[in-house]
From TrEMBL:
This is Biosynthetic peptidoglycan transglycosylase. GO terms for molecular function: glycosyltransferase activity. Belongs to the glycosyltransferase 51 family. InterPro entries: Glyco_trans_51, Lysozyme-like_dom_sf, PBP_transglycosylase, Pep_trsgly. It comes from Hymenobacter defluvii.
Amino acid sequence: MADYTQLARRTGRIVLQVAAALFLASVAWVLVYRWVAPPATWIMLERRAHPPIGRGYYGIRPEGDRQIRYTFCSLDEVSPNVPLALVAAEDQRFLVHHGFDGGALWQAAKHNWEGGSKLVGGSTISQQVAKNVFLWHGRSYVRKAAEAYFTVLIEVLWNKRRIMEMYMSVAEMGDCMFGVEAASQQYFHKSASKLTQAEAALLAGVLPNPLRFRASNPGPQARAKQQRVVRRMRSLRGSVYVKELMEE
């Protein structure tokens, strides 16, 4: 009996030590990215290894030409239209929530429960950053739990400005293409610092389905979303909102 008790205690200590090590490692990882741009993400490595498979995908690069296009940018290096368009398209309560938007999650759950024509999500920009920067592609309860955990960490350890910089720099904008700078060069042949309101709205409008919606040759759905994003940009007080984000 004593041997089993000792074994249980030893196992418990090992489990606690492993958990503490993982916690400290994750905190250190997030803290490093508070000041350092990620050299790559798991999703970039996955795209580099093999092309995505899905119906209706456009612009998929062949096996021998899968070079990742990615340039990290600060908010000072892009047009003010860019963060404004991303907030208007993806998360209009970005500045006021703490990583999770209960209202958006409830509306998404209600829509899906009532049998909407397609499933919708209620993820905030913070949740998408957690997913894009620290996690792998896939759907599982383990991954959702990890996403929630990293969302809490980045909300505690970063400010909103850094979260936005990370989102606009690592979000997938096309096959092997990540961030608004790479997308701006590809689709508009100019720097993201020179994007107009309409161009920024078009790039934001293809999220979160950049492999199906094209900014280079947008169809009716992409154009309709672009117009919705432009209207929301105006309702968000434009430059006033961006100033609040820059001062975070």
